[in-house]
Amino acid sequence: MTDHKPQTMGQQFGRRSWAEPWKIKMVEPLRMITKEARQQALIDAGYNTFLLRSEDVYIDLLTDSGTNAMSDRQWSGMMLGDEAYAGSRNFYNLEQAVQTYYGYKHLVPTHQGRGAEHLLSQVAIKKGQYIAGNMYFTTTRLHQELAGGIFVDVIIDEAHDPQNLHPFKGNVDLAKLEALIQDKGAENIAYISLAGTVNMAGGQPVSMQNVKELRALTDRYGIKVYLDATRMVENCFFIQEREPGYDQKRIAEILKEFCSYTDGAWISAKKDSLVNIGGWLAVNDWELFEELRNLVVVYEGLHTYGGLAGRDMEAMAIGIVESVQDDHVRSRVGQVRYLGELLTDWGVPIVQPVGGHAIFVDARAFYPHIPQDQFPAQTLAAELYLDSGIRSMERGVVSAGRNPKSGEHNFPKLELTRLTIPRRVYTQAHMDVVAESVKAIYDKRLQTHGLRLVYEPKYLRFFQARFERV
Ligand SMILES: Cc1ncc(COP(=O)(O)O)c(C=O)c1O
């Protein structure tokens, strides 16, 4: 017996506890396979967590994409699917939800985010044009490159430093952007590719002031701004929390204001919008919409379903409304933050400040003895799985791919392993188990060896690459 007094989660961190604004109605059993079986599963998967079978995973933090738990209302919406080929009523419900909460005029549904990225890139980029953005995202940049564009990163320098505590590390560096415009000429900039809570920077937000200033700058040069709104709701939480003048505004109001400074947006609804599949592209300009609406028919499906079933559009429409509720966003980001607070307290190097959807472990600092060409972040994901069956993913040199011209690895400054928290799926006890496992592999970090790449596919190699132990 110790004389230690039990404390609630809030008390441990000197604040009041928060709780999820829902209760659980249906459960899915979890199981952990033995250490020997995990070892074998990892070898079979070529040390790539994307190649593990999900039934061999205990707690799945691979991604927050499409892994959301839907509400009873969303499930009942699934039963109201109007599966007509054309003009499904669910499309009009979705269109209305996007117009109401995001504020754009014209909607093109797509099967998921990359479908929308493909359409926008094909329509808005001319070969050889530049696309400036606040850090690249894997599928976004690939579609921009496949359309003949050249991506240029214009995020602020602070975003590349995992320990820098800037409250809006997702901000665009307007001086870098203006220098690019002057160097290349405004007519050679296809558009600005602005992302909310920048995934590759650790889920870091963009401030309202930054997007306003971006609007003013791009207006001077006649350049369009398109928003990757995939995790924009989470971005709005940080504006509400950190930006003067926004603490009394609701998430829904902040979202609409932010979007109003942009010309259009695309989304992977598999994140913020609390569904398992879906996406869209929405713009204000009628002529651009006409082109997009024409192309969607070629690649996705008719313009009133875009590759989705009617029921999926209904679940998305309801999910959008649920996603902007303040208590939902607070508990969602709060859960991520809880895990971050534990790891920070125990000295584990993670990207600070903690972002909206995931904990990003700084794998370079975690394994200082493993060089970047031996894939420290991939190694960390493998070790975590081996320790406890927890699945995470690499966001470092493997994700960054190769330079299309030289064929060399792109070596990003950030070499991160992402523990991504699905929305409304895991409990606080799961977060405790995760934190303890990360700590366990941290304690034996110096005995860990890196990995060697033995196979890589041509595109988006992180999904299917295979490795061996060095
Ligand atoms: C910021 C961001 N943009 C775009 C995408 C692509 O969306 P999807 O996976 O639905 O194709 C994702 C998800 O992977 C993402 O995180």
Give the arrangement of secondary structure elements.
Elements: H1 9-12, H2 35-44, E1 59-60, H3 72-78, H4 89-101, E2 106-110, H5 113-124, E3 130-133, H6 138-146, E4 150-153, H7 174-184, E5 189-195, H8 208-221, E6 225-228, H9 232-242, H10 251-260, E7 264-268, E8 279-283, H11 286-299, H12 310-323, H13 326-345, E9 358-362, H14 363-366, H15 376-388, E10 390-391, E11 393-395, H16 397-400, E12 416-420, H17 428-443, E13 451-455, E14 466-469
Bound molecules: pyridoxal-5'-phosphate.
Question: Gist?
Answer:
This protein is an alpha/beta fold and 470 residues long. It has 17 helices and 14 strands.
Which structural class is indicated by helix and strand composition? alpha/beta
Instruction: Calculate Rg over CA atoms.
Output: 22 Å
What's the helical proportion of residues?
Answer: 25-40%
The end-to-end span amounts to 45 Å
The coarse overall form would be globular
Chemical compounds bound to the protein = pyridoxal-5'-phosphate
- Give the percentage of residues in beta strands: 5-15%
Average of pLDDT: 96
| Helix count from the secondary structure assignment | 17
Number of strands: 14
Unreliable residue stretches: none
Q: Could you describe the largest sheet, including whether it forms a barrel?
A: 7 strands, mixed
